[in-house]
Amino acid sequence: MTQSPLVLTCGEPAGIGPELAIKAWQALRGTLPFVYIGDPRHLGTAPFQVIEHPAQAVAVAPTAMPVLAHDFDGSARKGLADPANAKGVIDVIARAVDLVQLGEARAMCTAPIHKKALKDGAGFAYPGHTEYLAALAGRNLSVMMLASDMLRVVPVTIHIPVAEVPQSLTARLLTDTVLITHAALKRDFGIAKPRLAVAGLNPHAGEGGAMGQEELDLITPTLDALRAQGLDISGPLPADTMFHARAREAYDVALCMYHDQALIPIKTLDFDRGVNVTLGLPFVRTSPDHGTAFDIAGQGIADPTSLIEALKLADHMAQMRGSDQGI
Q: Same domain, yes or no, for 158 and 272?
């Protein structure tokens, strides 16, 4: 067993992140050691042990959840975000990035954050985890993938209004997203010859220009150029026929033009086991595919399945990369 554990960030402490961390530790214990970064006060009477260095997590994990303590300024009243905690949430993410980049943790997993609380409390300038992690890693672009055993999807544009999608969709963005996804499927998922399916932007993939020009003017020429480089790409395809069982057998990932076009299918097919993966970073990062769930926080009923799957996938991806964390 490797001596470097996974690292799990606490996320929004008023949400379900802390209780899911304990449930995940109870399910995994010493079989998949991880160290939690957060304020121990937010864990209540749960079985945890504060450690000084991530390397101690392997020995501690069989009997208690290892915790790297990080003091927060605010309270953690379940279901009610305190903006005073915003800086702590942001700093914990940065601390986890430092640990993986230093090799003291082999991959990171992040509990859900509440973006409005971060903006209100600390002027958080990023739409979400994906964009913030790209900035921390010094990357101009990172790619969001949602993955489960049933489906992998990638939205080309992410956290922007639907009205802004056509202007934001460029040949450069589509090309970079395809190439980053293709490389990640080979290295992180072990798929030697990835098959990529790409959705159109408009209904019926534009239907030859009758329902929009983006497919003819932008998407098709970009995909043709990528196919000329040897990539196995189908599309642009009508999004409404891409996700039934027979269609899914023909590709390893579906790239979609905007957020909901990609996320609705996977959340419908496999809501509990979907995992958010950030591609294009020099380290492995995963996250459960759900939010802070303020409405059930503290009730002990939150389902840890997605977090457990996220930790398992982070472990798998780290093993696929071996000692090479660069990209």
A: yes
- pLDDT reading at 265 higher than 90: yes
How far apart CA 135 and CA 137 sit, in angstroms, is 5
Same domain, 289 and 201: no
225-238 residue pLDDT tens: 999 999 999 999 99
Question: What is the 3 state secondary structure string of 25-45?
Answer: HHHHHHHCCEEEEECHHHHCC
Average pLDDT over residues 152-171: 96
Cα 213 from Cα 197, distance rounded (Å): 19
**3-class SS string, 164-176:** HHHHHCCHHHHHH
The DSSP output letter for 217 is I
The encoded tokens of residue 160 equal 């922007």
Residue pair 50/40 in contact by the 8 Å Cβ criterion: yes
Residue 249 lies in domain:
143-279
The CA distances from residue 24 to 39, 125, 214, 227, 282, in Å, are: 17, 30, 44, 42, 26
CATH number at residue 45: 3.40.718.10
Query: Tokens standing for 224?
Result: 């043709």
Residues 26, 133 within the same domain? yes
CA–CA separation, 27 vs 187, rounded Å?
A: 28
Q: Give tens-digit pLDDT for 284-311.
A: 999 998 999 999 999 999 999 999 999 9
